[in-house]
Please model this.
Amino acid sequence: MRFVALATGALASAVLAVPLAAPAVAAPASPAASSAEVQRSGSPDQHRDHSRHPAPGDGRNNARLQKVLDGIVAAGVPGVIAEVRDNDGVWVGRSGKGNLERKEPARADGLFRAGSVTKSFVATTVLQLVDEGALRLDDPVERHLPGLLPGGNKTTVRHLLSHRSGLFNYTDSLWSDGLKGFAETRFKRYTPHQLVDETNAHKPLFAPGTAGSYSNANYVVLGLLIEKATGHSAKAEITDRIVKPLHLRRTSFPELSTRIPGPHAHAYVRLQGPGSPYTDVTESSMSWAWTAGAIISDTHDLNTFYKALIDGKLLPAKLMKEMKTARPLKGGGPYGLGLAKVVDPAFGTAYGHTGGTPGFTTHSFTLADGSRQVTLSINSMADADKEHIAAGMAVKSLLAKGTGAG
Model:
């Protein structure tokens, strides 16, 4: 497990990722192709197909935004796509390659694995259940899932949501050979209980509530809590409560499928570490991530989700306050209940999440007043400092109000 620091550490939030590295195959082609597209008329939500039917925008502003994406590719990633929204409209951009073997450009409307952005969807679902009385934030896990965790009588729903449970992060041990181990077993199917068993095989990091440390295990347990409280699958609850009401038509929660259901960039990792050739891992099982990070989406849908969340359309004000109350995590920035909080002089306060799976890195943030949304997806798992820094600077620049979409 690793944290991605955006910019100079001002924007930091947890990423679903695997540690270490080892052998490789495909060599990267030089990233070229880039394009910027702007839609200025009407609200963003009125233009579902804006990436395919863009309207012309301000040329200077387009160039400024495009330069931000080009800077990420120049740092060494294969390709990047982004959508920026504000009151002036929507800007959609791309840079680099979506397919290194065929030297095809990245598609601005491409789907991607959003990784730990999934946690915001899961947290929202859990908090809706809290609002309905099916769960309480201070309920111990043992009350709903007896025997699941050794310390379940002292570990609460709030501890899980805020990464203050002390549970070991199972992705730190799931593959003994790191990314090489992942690549060799990426079609293996895990059950949620197998992931919990992997967690329980390790001593807790600390007593529940005494510290904060990011662990994907927290959100696997929350997935099981959703299912126990509702009698339905976590996928069904997330879909019925969030995906369908918000018309997130390109957001899905894969269970058994190893494919991405629609146009997408290929996903790449460097098995031997920074500077080594890229290996294509586009097709893979996400059962190892489940409710900690399996969602597939696009930039439009994620911006729509976070806009609705921050605008109070998914949770009552009392629970939004709980969700946004953030405390620092070890090695990372302030974290609330499924939301990372970012404060920077360039844009003020923003909320959202990052996500990193083998092959994709996602950043999705919304300004606290809901006036601006930024989502970008890189089709590789960033593993070099310069890539992390470039992505961080890009998100900071795109969130800044002086860089308009129209």
